[in-house]
Amino acid sequence: MEAAWVLTNIAASDYTLLVAECGAVPRLVELLGSPNANIRHQAIWCLGNIAADLPSCRDILFDHGVVTPLLSQFREDMKIPVLRTAMWALSNLCFGKLPAEVQVKPILEIVSQLIHSADEKILADACWTVYYLCGGVDDAIQDALDAGVCPQLVNLLMHASSSVLLPVIMALARISAGDDAQVQVLIENGILNCLAQLLGRSYPKNIKKQACLIVSNIATGSKDQIQAVIDASIISPLIVLLKTSETDIKKEAAWALSNAASGASSEQIQYLVSRGCLEPLCNVLTYQDPDLVYTCLQGLENILQAGEAGKKGEEESEMNPYAQFILESGGLDKLEDLQDVNSESIYDLAMKLLQSYWEEEVSESDDPSVPGSNDSSDTVETTSEDAAQPPAPASVADEAE
């Protein structure tokens, strides 16, 4: 007990790797089977500190088969302090990419129970574990959904503690990056109504950023999924954020609206425009993010096509109404400025729109035969990435009572 305690404190210092490499790990793993509950607790604590360090330290733990004996510690009769330590250690172990031989489903079975805990520390670490697994293991998103974590994670979006809300929303953001069927599970569990509340109220910046990211991922899906975003009354809060928020939140809100506009039907386009999306989308064209600008251009193209289709039903209509609004709001100038951008794909799409909808307004000096970019083509993606990262696991030194 005392020896494990000393090693726990050393493992919480700058000498964690020394503890991992000196032969302590197999003995600590063996102590997880001790009949003495205090010794088991101390061994868990020391292993958790080792897991919180470098990937090489976690590799040593995996090499000595730590997962199964650690999972065996989770029992119905566990005291809360021990359960906290065990969940924290398991969360640290799941940080980063797990070896292929590690079975994720048994971990998720335990986590799916502990995300119902009333203890905030246990709850937070359980949610961080879902987040880590969904980003570090192939097919883990489906495994997490199969384990039944989704309904409770969505419920936890309304949790009062930011220490719980952050890992919850980041885990849901990872899940929202899955395929349409996986995203549909989130929608069916009511995530959009919760996100509408998060976006419309005063929450920390990192929470709102992740909420926008989830909406963005959902909006890349089917027209029915875009309709679900509309039905949840999320578009107006997104537009407010795009106009008034800090730069990084504006960017995520821009992704969400651009993705929605890119895949929307004519009726959905009409709704987006009625809510005032055109002017802020035109402002996105000035952003220094080629992928986002290109996706925004795709959204504007879809909007303009819808406007053109609607114009056909009217007699003597002189101009596409959406093109007219873009012209009056200064969007045409921003499109013309894109002729000088260093991206062939952006240049080509911008020129296509200028020639298709504003041919008479475009200056004669804007000769389309003169390229506005170099010969290289930027690789463009149409979905935003889960960029926000949590802090790495922290080592904790044991303390005498």
Structure, described:
The structure is a single chain. With 401 residues, the protein is mainly α. The protein is built from 24 helices and no strands. The chain has helices at 2-11, 16-21, 24-31, 37-51, 55-63, 67-71, 80-93, 104-114, 120-136, 140-146, 150-155, 162-176, 180-188, 191-200, 205-219, 223-231, 235-244, 247-263, 266-274, 278-284, 290-311, 321-328, 331-337, 344-357. The model is unreliable at 370-389 (pLDDT under 50).
Strand content: under 5%
Sheet of most strands: none
Outline type: elongated
Helix content: 55-70%
Which secondary-structure class do the elements indicate? mainly alpha
Output the radius of gyration. Answer: 26 Å
Number of helices: 24
**Mean of the pLDDT scores?**
89
Q: What low-confidence regions span 5 or more consecutive residues with pLDDT below 50?
A: 370-389
Spatial separation of the terminal alpha carbons: 15 Å
In N-to-C order, the SSE pattern is: HHHHHHHHHHHHHHHHHHHHHHHH
* Number of E-state strands: 0
Annotate the secondary structure layout.
Elements: H1 2-11, H2 16-21, H3 24-31, H4 37-51, H5 55-63, H6 67-71, H7 80-93, H8 104-114, H9 120-136, H10 140-146, H11 150-155, H12 162-176, H13 180-188, H14 191-200, H15 205-219, H16 223-231, H17 235-244, H18 247-263, H19 266-274, H20 278-284, H21 290-311, H22 321-328, H23 331-337, H24 344-357
Provide keyphrases for this structure.
401 residues, 0% strand, elongated, mainly alpha
